[in-house]
Design a protein that fits this description.
Blueprint (H helix, E strand, L loop, with lengths): L1 E3 L2 E4 L4 E3 L5 E6 L2 E4 L2 E18 L4 E13 L2 E4 L2 E6 L12 E8 L3 E6 L1 H6 L2
Parallel strand pairs: 9-10
Antiparallel strand pairs: 1-11, 2-3, 2-10, 3-4, 4-5, 5-6, 6-7, 6-10, 6-11, 7-8, 8-9
Length: 123
């Protein structure tokens, strides 16, 4: 599924929200739930800049990235993890590595990839 957005963000409550604050998807059970489907990840093509708010309150602007992937509670550029989002916090993770909110800017094209088990279960 492809989506074009001028801005969207992953919030600390595990929601993916558009520029008007509308909830587009929810992250729980290690999957993105978009409409009636489950997706293992989403990918963005850019250039993409990120505005991140760390769990300790610091804010950074990073990028540009040619593409990004959100999967398993982390954000990846190519094969390198660049951050974790708080929505999937585990007690064993150092909170200085966690991002509370992640804003994706510069008109990314977003592609959601369905979870392999969703094909089996028909969801």
């Amino acid at each position: 599924m492809l989506v074009r957005a001028t801005h969207f963000r992953i919030c600390s409550d595990g929601t993916l929200r558009g520029p008007d604050n509308t909830i587009a998807a929810r992250y729980f059970g290690r999957l993105w739930h978009l409409a009636q489907q489950r997706h293992a990840l989403f990918e963005c093509t850019g250039p993409i800049y990120l505005r991140v708010t760390h769990c300790d309150g610091r804010r950074d602007s990073i990028g540009p990235y040619a593409s990004l992937r959100a999967a398993g509670g982390a954000i990846f550029s190519d094969d390198s993890r660049i951050g974790l989002y708080a929505a999937c916090a585990q007690s064993s993770v150092d909170t200085t590595e966690m991002w509370e909110e992640i804003s994706f800017v510069t008109s990314p094209m977003v592609s959601f990839t369905r979870s392999p088990d969703s094909f089996i279960k028909g969801s």
